[in-house]
Write a structure and sequence with these properties.
Blueprint: H1 2-13, H2 28-32, H3 35-50, H4 55-65
Helix pairs in contact: 3-4
């Protein structure tokens, strides 16, 4: 949720665009969850964040929606 807050604050002062370079990101979440599941969970978290839910509630809900690599070991 820190990402949402950071982007919200930055967006007020700067506009974002697409950079013409590649970036590497972790795919661990997608190894145990479908693309759809991860994106729907992210959307739900964003909406809850914007409605002002407490960060602990957001964390608990996210862990309910997404299987995490550390849990599967």
């Amino acid at each position: 949720m820190k990402d949402f807050e950071l982007i919200k604050r930055l967006w007020k002062k700067h506009r974002f665009g697409i950079i013409p370079k590649s970036v590497k990101v972790s795919a661990r979440k997608y190894e145990l969850n479908s693309y759809w599941t991860v994106n729907m969970a992210n959307l739900k978290m964003y909406r809850m964040f914007m409605k002002g839910y407490h960060p602990q509630i957001l964390k608990e809900k996210y862990f309910q929606l997404i299987k995490h690599p550390k849990e599967s070991k």
